[in-house]
Amino acid sequence: MTTPNDRVLQARIAAHASWAKTDDRAARTAKARKAMESKFEKQVDPDGVLPPDERARRAEHARKAHYTRLALKSAQARRRRSRGSDKGGAAQ
User: Fold this and answer.
1) DSSP-based three-state secondary structure for 6
2) Which of 15, 33, 58, 80 could crosslink 44 through cysteines, CB 3.0-4.6 Å?
3) Radius of gyration of the chain (CA)
4) Do 58 and 42 contact (CB within 8 A), yes or no?
């Protein structure tokens, strides 16, 4: 029976093997990067009325806010886990 940890390792192996065969990383990820850019542009200008340069500026700030929010949540989770392990209990 395959355990969850085994599946994680198998997926990691497959991902590394796939990237090892990739000649152009930028080309492989271009579609996803474009989709994320579009997501933030739609977030800041849902009706498409802003000039392109202003839409891009606002989208860049929305992107930075998104990733900073993720970093904050990550730091808070690490802090909670650290406090849990300091008390000798399992982190939840």
Assistant:
1) helix
2) 58
3) 20
4) no
